[in-house]
Amino acid sequence: MTRSPSSTVYLVGAGIASLSAAALLIRDAGVDGRRIHVLEETALPGGALDGKGDAQSGYVTRGGRMLTEETYVCLWDVLHAIPSLDRPGVSVKDDCWAFNAEHVPHARARLIDREHRILDARHLGFDIQDRVELMRLLATSEKALGTKRIEEVFSGHFFQTNFWTMWRTTFAFQNWHSAIELKRYMLRFLQEFPRIHTLGGVRRTRYNQYDTIVRPMRRWLERQGVSFVHETKVIDAQFASNAGGHRVTRLDALRDGQALAYAIADDDVVLFTVGSMTADATQGGDGWPAPLVRDKRDGAWTLWENMARKLPGLGRPNTFCGNVDETKWLSFTLTMRSPLLLERIEAFSGNEPGTGGLMTFKDSSWLMSIVVPHAPHFAGQPDGVHTLWGYGLFVDQPGDYV
Ligand SMILES: Cc1cc2nc3c(=O)[nH]c(=O)nc-3n(C[C@H](O)[C@H](O)[C@H](O)COP(=O)(O)OP(=O)(O)OC[C@H]3O[C@@H](n4cnc5c(N)ncnc54)[C@H](O)[C@@H]3O)c2cc1C
Questions:
Q1: Residues 268, 221: one domain?
Q2: What pLDDT sits at residue 3?
C-alpha cells in the first residue's frame, strides 16, 4: 500500500508494539518521524514494560521479561537500530547481548519443595500418557481445539510433572487457560524444552525493560520527530465502510476529562494496540493490598469492545477480559537496604544475582516464584540497595511461605 508523503500515522498506545511500529515505519518504510503521533493514556510510555521508583520509596516492576535469542528475532532487529542510553556507539541489542555474555543464565535451584530441597528438575517427569497427550495437543488444529482449556487436554499426571510446574511458572499459565494458547507457546518456545530446568535460553536486559528498552526507544523516536501525546485515552473509533473494507475516519479521545477528536484523512494510518495485560493494574504497599479493579477503567478493553461492537471481524475482547477472577494476577518487588536475604539466597541456590532465573516454591500455596536480578536493576539504583521480583499464580490463597 502506498501512502502520500503527507499521510499521518496515529499509534494508539505506547507499549513496545507501538514503539516498534514507529521505529520500523521510520527505519524501514521511510516515514518522516514528524508525521507519527503516539496517543497514550498513561503518563509514561512502555505499557507492560515498566520500571519505576527509588531507593527510599521502593522500586517496582510489574514484570520482568525473559527473552530468548531464537524467538525474539523481531525485537532484536528493532533494538539493533536503537542506540543505548549510556554506552556510546552501542545499540540496545548489542548491549543486551554483551550483558548476557557476562552474566550467563543457568538456574541451579529452579524448583524447591516443601522440605526446602532443591529438586533435580532435569527430570521432566513425563510418563507415556503425558507424551501422547503432548503430541496430540501439538498435532491438533486450533479449530479442533476451540475453546478447550488446558485441563481438558491433559490428564492428572501431567499436572504433577516437574515439566508443568516449570513451564506454567515460566509463562504464567493456569490449568484453566486456553489449550490453543499453550500450543502456540509450546511451538514458539520449543527450543526451551531441553533447558527449561536451567532457563539457560533466557536473555535478560541490563536493567529492567523500561530503563533498557523503553527509554532509549523513546529518546530515539523523539529525535526523529515522533510526538508522544500522553494522558490521552482513545475511547472510540468511527469507520467508513465500502466494498474494499473499513477505514477509520475519526478517533474519539479523552484528555483531562475533556472530549477531543482526531480526524483521520483517507491516506492516514491508524495502528491500535487493543487489550493489555496490565490494564487496570493497581499498586499495593507494605501495609495494604493492591485493590482489584473489575469495571475496566483503563481504555485498553473498552476501546476494543466499542470497535468490535461496530465492526464484525475485530475479534472478541470478552474472551480475554471477561473473566477477571481467572485472569487476574499479582506480582511484587522487594527493595532491600541490606544484602542479607540475597546472600542467603545465593548461598542456598548457588546462583549469583542475575544468573538464576525463576526459583519456584512448588508447594507454596501461592505457587510463588522469585527472581533475583543483577544489581543495579534500575537506573540510578545506589550501591547497597538490592531488589527482588516475584509473583504467585494463586493470588487468592493466604501465603504460607516465609
Ligand atoms: C508481569 C509480566 C511479565 C511478563 N513476562 C514476559 C516475559 O517473560 N517474556 C515476554 O515476552 N513477555 C512477557 N510479558 C508480556 C509482555 O510484557 C507484553 O506482551 C508486552 O509488553 C505487550 O506490549 P504491547 O505494546 O502489545 O502492549 P502493552 O504493553 O499492554 O501496551 C499497551 C499500551 O497502550 C496503552 N493503551 C491501551 N489502550 C489505550 C487507549 N484506548 N488509549 C490510549 N492508550 C491506550 C496502555 O496504557 C499501554 O501503555 C510479561 C507481562 C507482564 C505483565
A1: yes
A2: 59
Asked whether 276 lines ligand 1 (CB < 6 A), one says yes
Cβ(174) to ligand 1 under 6 A?
A: no
Q: Alpha-carbon distance 220 to 243, whole Å?
A: 40
Residue entry with cell 529452579: 110
Ligand 1 pocket test, candidate residues 202, 205, 277, most atoms within 8 A of CB: 277
| Ranges assigned E (strand) in 145-295 | 227-229, 232-242, 245-255, 258-263, 269-272
For residue range 344-355, list pLDDT tens digits in order: 999 999 999 999
Closest C-alpha among 331, 392, 319 to residue 168: 392
Residue 197 vs residues 107, 259, 262, 351, 371: alpha-carbon distances, Å: 7, 51, 50, 14, 14
**Counting atoms of ligand 1 from 1, which one is nearest the CA of 48?**
29
**CATH number of the domain enclosing 41:** 3.50.50.60
- The pLDDT of residue 174 is 97
For residues 223 and 308, membership in a common domain is answered with yes
Structural domain count, the chain = 2
* Same domain (yes/no): 159, 217: no
Statement to judge: residues 217 and 190 lie in one domain = no
Its pTM stands at 0.96
pLDDT above 70 covers what percent of the chain? 99
